[in-house]
Here is the input.
Amino acid sequence: MSKLPYFDPRQIPVAGVDAHLPAVAHHVLQPAALRQRFISPPVWTPELVAEKTFSERQPIHASVLLPIVMREQPTVLLTERTMHLSTHSGQIAFPGGKADEEDADASATALREAQEEIGLDPAFVQVLGHMPHYITGSAFIITPVVALVETGFKLTPNANEVADIFEVPLAFLMNPAHHQRHAFEWEGARREWFSMPYLEQMNGQTTQRFIWGATAGMLRNFYRLLSA
Here is the structure.
């Protein structure tokens, strides 16, 4: 299995949009309801579990923080990775990374990595729970750790790993009308993924945040949990 060639995911045609699926109701996106969802989780099944592999290395355990900022309208805090990183360079991602032997559990990994990557103080973070593993084509076994983040935090990005930090409304991400499907053929295998392009308006400027791949896949699973 050879390494996937570089390609611009923005140039891959959209195969479909899931506008026929209902958006998650506004009240379900509020902090109290999100806490309750993890205290008494519904019966649900993740839609996406493993991507088709394009790596021959041994699997690596990792955790990411899915941080929901408790603003008047909740948002999800995301990063843009720097272009020189060896894996997933330039992509939109959750803060997170590889587990260390010293980490007590997946939550500890996610909190440590978020503090190292973007300077998010764990004192502002309340972990709600974990979602099922998501296995990337690059052989990372990721545990998404969902958490609420109090406002008032200050961030200091690690310039070696993080090119930018931004927030996207949770309601936008939990509306399948914004979930686009893509497909790509490589070495006889069909690879499929979601994208959730978000147009950020700030200071009169418009920036497209092209959320796709593993990050979009984990958000899609979060949609399935909240809509169950």
